[in-house]
Amino acid sequence: MAALRNLFRGGKNVFGVLSRREFHRSVPAAVQLTYRDALTQAMDEEIERDETVFLLGEEVAQYDGAYKVSRGLWKKWGDKRIIDTPISEMGFAGIAVGAAMAGLRPICEFMTFNFSLQAIDQVINSAAKTYYMSAGAVPVPIVFRGPNGSSAGVAAQHSQCFAAWYSHCPGLKVLSPWSAEDAKGLLKSAIRDDNPVIFLENELMYGVPFEVSEEVQSKDFVIPIGKAKVEKEGMNITLVAHSKSVGHCLDAAAALAKEGIDCEVINMRTIRPLDIETIEASVMKTNHLVTVEGGWPQFGVGAEVCARIMEGPAFNYLDAPAVRVTGADIPMPYAKILEDNCVPQIKDIIFSVKKVLNV
Predict the structure, then answer these.
(1) pLDDT band at 20 (very low <50, low <70, confident <90, very high)
(2) Strand (E) positions, 131-269?
(3) Catalytic residue list contains 89
(4) Are residues 337 and 259 in the same domain?
(5) Total domain count for the chain?
(6) Catalytic one among 45, 46, 58, 89?
(7) Do 205 and 262 lie in a common domain?
(8) Per-residue pLDDT for 8 more than 50?
(9) 70 in a structural domain
(10) Is the pLDDT of residue 12 over 90?
(11) pLDDT score of 14
(12) Is the dihedral of CA 120, 126, 127, 129 positive or negative?
């Protein structure tokens, strides 16, 4: 028997053929995680880790959430940790802010960030300013989260992007994840942060699966707030985007690569604080810049990025003016053909890149 074992030592027999055991050591298939499930995991893990964390909002408990982001959490954690609220954003946002001031860590879900305008006094005047006005004595560790930006067929009153709105206000941190990795790592960091955080999800991304590493699946996985990620390296031009627009930039970069144009794609992840250093380093390498966002152009995220580049050391490296790709400067139409022409498309990014590069 010992001689027989020696024949198969190391997983191979004397003829170099893999044993059955070796087949089971093959690299496992990549794990896929949807954007929605990444958010659910993040909340579940943080509720388990910290007894002061709880979720409240419309339909988050028994109905599992309007977009099923809180699916299964009420059955697991019960009424104390997962709380259904009336349709009154000002009311339950105020309760959440008060709870944060009292030492809890609420996650306040808006069914859409368009409805956060009902509670904007609580978000801005109560949550954002109290830490500063109390000289650091009263932290407000709260996360306001929910879908942001345009969806599909929901018209003007449900289609604003609030990235620029909320990032205008000191005292708030504003996060805008693109991938499942972003969603999980950033939400966990947001829940642990002592500042109020605006967490802007995207309704059209909830069901999108992403391949994730073992690191991302860990309960200890977090992404630092205020750090962008270079999703694709390139030499000819820098594309800067957040949320769903990152995917459009990657698709545009793949199409442009066939024409010999090498794009660098930066996923902002955090809108405030803005990681301008990563963007500057990229622009100083590529000498060209295009920003992409779903929001309106005036005073938008792209406008801020372009202004910061103009004011900083990267300006002297630009070989052409920076260009913004944005949503149309009108309220969102209901008709699909008009809606499609109001949000940035891959073709719009390709057109702008060629315009900047003069090709």
Answers:
(1) very low
(2) 143-147, 173-175, 197-201, 209-212, 229-232, 237-241, 263-267
(3) yes
(4) yes
(5) 2
(6) 89
(7) no
(8) no
(9) yes
(10) no
(11) 40
(12) positive
Q: Are residues 213 and 73 in the same domain?
A: yes
Q: For residues 239 and 90, state if they share a domain.
A: no
Read off the tokens for 225.
């707030």
User: Would you mind telling me the total number of residues written for the chain in this entry?
Assistant: 359
pTM: predicted TM-score of the whole model, two decimal places: 0.89
Q: What is the mean pLDDT of residues 154-171?
A: 94
- Of 46, 158, 248, 293, the catalytic one is 158
Count CA atoms within 13 Å of residue 171 on its CB side.
20
**pLDDT, mean over the chain:** 92
Helix (H) or strand (E) holding 59: none
User: How much is the pLDDT for 29?
Assistant: 58
Q: Which residue has the higher pLDDT, 152 or 148?
A: 148
Check residue 153 and give its pLDDT.
87
My answer on whether 195 and 244 are in the same domain is no
289-335 pLDDT tens trace: 999 999 999 999 999 999 999 999 999 999 999 999 999 999 999 99
Residue 275's CATH number: 3.40.50.920
* CA–CA dist 203, 338 (Å, integer): 19
Residue type, 257: A
- Listed in order, strand segments (DSSP E) in the chain are 31-34, 53-57, 82-84, 105-109, 143-147, 173-175, 197-201, 209-212, 229-232, 237-241, 263-267, 270-272, 289-292, 323-325
Helix, strand, coil % over all residues of the chain, rounded to 5: 40, 15, 40
Give catalytic status of residue 288 as yes or no: no
- The verdict on 270 and 173 lying in the same domain is no
Give the domain extent around 65: 31-217
Reduced 3-state DSSP string for 73-117: HHHHHCCCCEEECCCCHHHHHHHHHHHHHCCCEEEEECCCHHHHH
